[in-house]
Design brief:
Blueprint: E1 16-23, E2 29-36, E3 39-42, H1 50-54, H2 59-65, H3 75-80, E4 93-95, E5 102-107, H4 111-123, H5 130-141, H6 153-164, H7 170-176, E6 181-186, E7 197-200, E8 207-208, E9 211-217, E10 223-231, E11 233-234, H8 235-240, H9 245-249, E12 255-263, H10 270-274, E13 277-283, E14 289-295, H11 303-308, E15 321-324, E16 348-353, E17 357-365, H12 376-385, H13 389-393
Parallel strand pairs: 5-15, 7-17
Antiparallel strand pairs: 1-2, 1-4, 1-12, 2-3, 5-6, 8-11, 9-10, 9-15, 10-12, 13-14, 13-16, 16-17
């Protein structure tokens, strides 16, 4: 069972945690929930979208001010029921903890993975060439890229030297230059959560998970919390051409975020994100095991800078956005394809961080994963049928005459 791989946050759920749950029944649908040590509580009558909650001046304070009704169950019970293989559809289960937000991602933010992006490009998507290209590039560059600050004079000098030697790359441009790579990872409402199948394009033969921390950002650009994410990547597609980035990144079920958002408060802040380690474990049904770790302390660009390059005078997000921060983990452990790691159906991907818990998913193909059919119109219709449209737009506290 997927839950066997789950590790709870090291400080329990004593901080400020928010998520989304699917409620069964004729009056069911997505519900905003508060995660507490004693259980999971529906607060949808006060705030019916995560987007509206995160736009409040103090989302954590608002949640802690709400009176909590009867629990939907324990965190463990809902996590166990979020595994499609054993799910009881008559009981609630977790969804991804975001809804209306744009889903953005930052690429090439770690020097450790920067070289692997160049390897993909040089291989033209052929994993069989990876080892030789990797060794040649490392010998040619001869510089510890992790010590180079993007946009600095040192980075500019290295760029000039690499261009003179014919080694310049689009990945080195965003890894060393002033401008970060920020791209659209998925459409709003299309991400999947804990337990769900994560999708690999059926034509891909060289792909990997990307364990990352995902920042939750308000429409005003304030960073208000964080979650775990899997920025599923198709190395062969992107390696053939950077113009295939959308096909490499945005497929059915190819974005996983969860299990919850931990909001910033006195117990958790952006500095905790900056110090975080993100672990990865892949367990195959064939007995294959791969492990790795990505340390945010080694990121080349500060998370706040990445957010600043995403939103501003040239680009707004009226419903807020989430931002994948990138990973230093680019697996090279061979799995029989001659060029490194690639997924197989039914791999279990376990992404964890001590302050954020564990995100667990099972790998399948995008054309076999559940179709994405619950979009904006379906959400609005569902909230309207439950009398929650107003709460989806404007959160209401306990003193504002909430109807039962």
């Amino acid at each position: 069972m997927l839950y066997d791989a789950y590790v709870a946050p090291e400080d329990g759920y004593a901080g400020s945690w928010v998520g989304r749950v699917w409620l069964p029944g004729s009056q069911g649908g997505p519900a905003v929930v508060v995660i507490r040590p004693e259980g999971v509580h529906d607060v949808s009558r006060h705030v019916a979208t995560i987007s509206a909650l995160l736009d409040l001046e103090d989302p954590a304070g608002f949640l802690h001010s709400l009176p909590l009704r009867e629990s939907l169950g324990t965190v463990e019970a809902l996590l166990r029921n979020s595994d499609p293989a054993t799910q009881d559809a008559s009981r609630p289960f977790f969804l991804t903890p975001i809804d209306l937000q744009a889903v953005k991602a930052a690429g090439v933010t770690f020097a450790a993975s920067l070289l692997e992006r160049v390897v993909e490009e040089q291989c033209k998507g052929d994993p069989a060439q990876a080892a030789a290209v990797r060794a040649a590039l490392a010998a040619e560059i001869g510089t510890d890229l992790s010590a180079v600050t993007p946009g600095s004079e040192e980075a500019k000098a290295l760029r000039t030297a690499l261009m003179a030697r014919g080694l310049w790359s689009q990945y080195l441009e965003v890894g060393l230059g002033e401008d970060a790579e920020i791209f659209t990872k998925a459409q709003p409402l299309s991400a999947v959560g804990y337990g769900a199948t994560v999708g690999i394009h059926p034509k891909s033969h060289w792909n990997n998970p990307e364990p990352e921390i995902v920042l939750a950002v308000s429409s005003a650009g304030r960073i208000v919390g964080a979650a775990l994410g899997n920025d599923v990547n198709l190395r062969d597609f992107e390696g053939r051409s950077a113009l295939l980035l959308s096909k490499a990144k945005d497929n059915n079920a190819s974005t996983s975020i969860g299990p919850f958002i931990r909001l910033f408060d006195g117990s958790f802040s952006l500095d905790d994100v900056r110090r975080a380690d993100v672990t990865l474990r892949v367990e195959g049904s064939d007995g294959f095991v791969m492990e790795g770790v990505s340390s945010l302390s080694r990121i080349s660009r500060d998370p706040a800078d990445l957010v600043g390059q995403t939103i501003g005078g040239t680009h707004q997000y009226p419903d807020g956005f989430v931002l994948f921060l990138g990973t230093m983990f680019a697996p090279t452990q061979d799995r029989g394809n001659g060029g490194g790691f690639t997924h197989k159906r039914d791999d279990v991907v376990v992404i964890g961080s001590p302050r954020l818990g564990t995100l667990v998913n099972r790998v399948g193909y995008s054309d076999e994963a559940p179709r994405w059919e619950f979009g904006f119109r379906a959400l609005m219709a569902n909230l309207a049928s439950r009398g929650l449209v107003e709460a989806a737009v404007r959160p209401r506290n306990a003193s504002e005459g909430i109807r039962p």
